Amino acid sequence: MNVLRLPLIAITTAVALSACGDNLDRADAGNSEAVALGEKLYAENCAECHGADLKGQPNWRETKADGTLPAPPHDDSGHTWHHDDQLLFKYTKLGGAGVAPPNFKSAMPGFGANLSDHEIWAVLSYIKSRWSLQAQARQAGLNK
Ligand code: HEC
Questions:
Q1: Distance between CA atoms of 28 and 39, rounded to whole angstroms?
Q2: Is 130 exposed, middle or buried (0-12, 13-18, 19+ CB in 10 A)?
Q3: Which site among 68, 96, 120, 125 is 20 to 30 Å from 32 CA-CA?
C-alpha cells in the first residue's frame, strides 16, 4: 500500500513545486497573479512615499532644502514609464544610491534586503498595470 502511494506523493509534490517556482523575470501587467501580489506589496512598501494612488509627493519636481527630490508619481503623470524594465528593477532593488550618478542625492531606498526579485517584478507589474495602454505600449518599445 505504502509502496504504491509514494510515487503519487512524489508526483504531486513536484507539480506543486513547479507552480510556486514560477519566478517572475519581468514586469507583466497582464499577469493578474503578479499584479495582485504587487498591489499588496506596493501598499506595504511604496505607498508611504509614492502615494496610495501612485500620485507621488506634492511638488515632486522641486528639490527640497536637504537636496533630495520628493517621490515622483508612478502613474502616467510621472516618468516611471519613460524607463525600461531593467532600470526600474535596479532602481527598486538597489535604490537611487546604487543607480543614480554619484553627485545625485537620492531619497529612494533600496529594497533588495526586503523584497525578493520575484516580489520586485510583482510590484513593477502592478505599477505598469496602472498605466494607460498608450504609456504601456511606449514603454514596451524601450524594453526591446
Ligand atoms: C522613503 C520614500 C520612498 C519609498 C518608501 C519608495 N520610494 Fe521610490 N523613490 C523615492 C524618491 C524620493 C525617488 C526620486 C529619485 C531619488 O531620490 O532617487 C524615488 C524614485 C523611484 C524610482 C525611479 C523614478 C521613476 O519613477 O522611475 C522608482 C522606479 C521607484 N522609486 C520605485 C519604488 C518602489 C517600487 C517602491 C516600493 C517597493 C518605492 N519606490 C518606495 C522615494 C521612495
A1: 13
A2: buried
A3: 96
Which tens digit of pLDDT belongs to each residue from 101-120? 989 999 999 999 999 999 99
Residue recorded with cell 510590484: 123
Residue 132 neighbours by CB under 8 Å, 6+ apart: 76
Ligand 1 atom at shortest distance from the alpha carbon of 96: 18
Q: What percent of the chain has pLDDT over 90?
A: 81
Cell numbers 514560477: residue: 22
User: What cell numbers appear for 34 in the block?
Assistant: 503578479
User: Is the C-beta atom of 51 inside 6 A of ligand 1?
Assistant: no
